[in-house]
Write a structure and sequence with these properties.
With about 425 residues, the protein is mainly alpha-helical. The chain has three domains: about 140 residues; about 160 residues, no CATH class; about 80 residues, no CATH class. It contains 21 helices and three strands. A three-stranded mixed beta sheet has the order 1-3-2, sandwiched between helices. α8 packs across α11. The protein starts with a helix and ends in a 5-residue tail after the last helix.
């Protein structure tokens, strides 16, 4: 029976076994050098402490069946999360021996500090599936739901997964900035900020009401059902678009080109419950880049690619079902809200075309001569090196969509870009002794 003595015996023994297995693993029991991975390790230790707290405060012999059943449920949840915590062990190992390009890791850590905060602990690990994804506070379900327990760790652990095949594809790694956007959106409540602005706009609320009423008449569902469904989809789309805009703020065109290269083979104008159509994403991204002053640079470096992307953006207003057309039309009408929200988050750390274009030109020129583009005078900004890498890639492999794909096969170019970012980061951080 659930919650009886034998059930408790099984659950407590299982929990102790999972805890012992985790603590006996040297990847967890051994301290980490430096700060990388430290918050993730502390997060796992907090999970273990939270479960031990639950075990120590279980119901006594005279507890009601309701209380005993509730404790049994909490222990089953605990065991499931403890078993999931074994996934963190190879993550911790990855902090000791990163498999991703080191220069790319440095610039990604810079993006994490800008987007999420200075107290972020970024762990970048390969994923067995061909997938980019980000997870923050992976074991918080037990920690936050344990009454009377206070976690020791306050730094946000962020685990960023990438396909192992892309470990050295440095030109593709600006996609990491989009993934970090999810942690930024969560940490700083950016979706709520956008939703609040929309709700304060009479044009939006009127359009929402009209759409809900029309769908009620057509489906027979209740207004609350339709409204809740619309809002849920809208919030998911807003999050994805905010992540695109945050990546544009900190990476500029170096995000736009790999973004198109990555998403368009997977879909064109199809809608998804969590992801807007790629035609809409391309259009809003191009509008944001133009507003930021990047369009002249992009037209100079890749005029034919930009014509291609403009054509895709032009298809964003194609026919859609009423529900998705409402989402699309409102997001286009409120593009400035998305852009402004991202710009406020990045502030002075946003990429400035006036400063970056000359530096990217310098980096591209050095790459053309197979010279590490660290900088002829002062170290070049790591993001300018990445942008210069794309500039050189397009010049060498062609100003057309296939050229973007072919650039990813250029290992020599990407090795130069990654090593230059690595050295530039070290040189910028180094302070000569007085």
């Amino acid at each position: 029976m659930v919650g009886d003595a034998l059930d408790f015996q099984l659950l407590l023994a299982s929990a102790r076994h999972e805890i012992a297995t985790l603590l006996d693993d040297p990847r967890l029991s051994t301290g980490l050098p430096g700060k990388r991975g430290g918050a993730l390790r502390d997060h796992v230790l907090d999970l273990i402490a939270a479960v031990e707290h639950r075990m120590a405060h279980g119901p006594g012999g005279g507890a009601s069946q309701r209380a005993r059943s509730a404790f049994a449920r909490s222990m089953r949840q605990s065991i499931g999360v403890l078993q999931g915590a074994h996934a963190a062990l190879p993550w911790l190992e990855a902090t000791r021996r990163p498999s991703v390009n080191l220069g790319s890791l440095y610039v990604t850590e810079e993006w994490a500090r800008i987007l999420v905060g200075t107290d972020v602990d970024l762990v970048v690990v390969p994923d067995p599936e061909f997938m980019y994804a980000t997870t923050s506070w992976p074991f918080s379900a037990v920690i936050n739901e344990t009454p009377g327990f206070t976690a020791r760790n306050t730094r946000r652990p962020v685990v960023l997964n990438y396909p192992l095949s892309d470990a050295d594809r440095v030109l593709l790694h600006p996609i990491f900035a989009h993934e970090l956007g999810h942690a930024s959106v969560d940490e700083h409540h950016l979706v709520d900020a956008v939703a609040t602005e929309l709700d304060n706009d009479p044009a939006f609320t009127t359009a929402l009401e009209d759409t809900v009423n029309a769908m009620v008449a057509g489906t027979g569902l209740a207004q609350t059902q339709i409204s809740g469904m619309l809002r849920g989809l809208l919030l998911d789309w807003i999050e994805e678009l905010l992540c695109d805009h945050l990546a544009i703020e900190i990476a500029g065109p170096a995000f736009m080109w790999p973004f198109a290269l990555f998403v368009l083979p997977h879909g064109y104008g199809e809608v998804g419950r969590e992801h807007p159509p790629n035609t809409l994403r391309v259009r809003l991204a191009l509008e944001h880049l133009a507003r930021r002053g990047w369009r002249p640079y992009m037209d100079r470096i890749a005029p034919e690619i930009m014509v291609w992307l403009d054509g895709i953006a032009g298809d964003a207003t194609g026919a859609l079902d009423r529900l998705f057309a409402f989402l699309r039309d409102q997001l286009l009408a409120h593009a400035n809200v998305l852009q402004d929200t991202a710009s406020r988050r990045t502030g002075a750390d946003a990429l400035d075309p006036a400063a970056m274009e000359p530096a990217a030109d310098e980096a591209a020129g050095l790459l053309e001569r197979l010279i590490l583009p660290v900088g002829l005078g002062n170290p070049l900004d790591s993001r300018a090196i990445l942008l210069g890498g794309w500039q050189r890639a397009i010049a060498e492999h062609g100003d057309h969509p296939a050229g973007l794909v072919e650039a990813l096969t250029d290992r020599r170019l990407q090795e130069l870009v990654g090593k230059a970012i690595e050295l530039s980061t070290v040189a910028s951080a180094w302070k000569p002794a007085k």
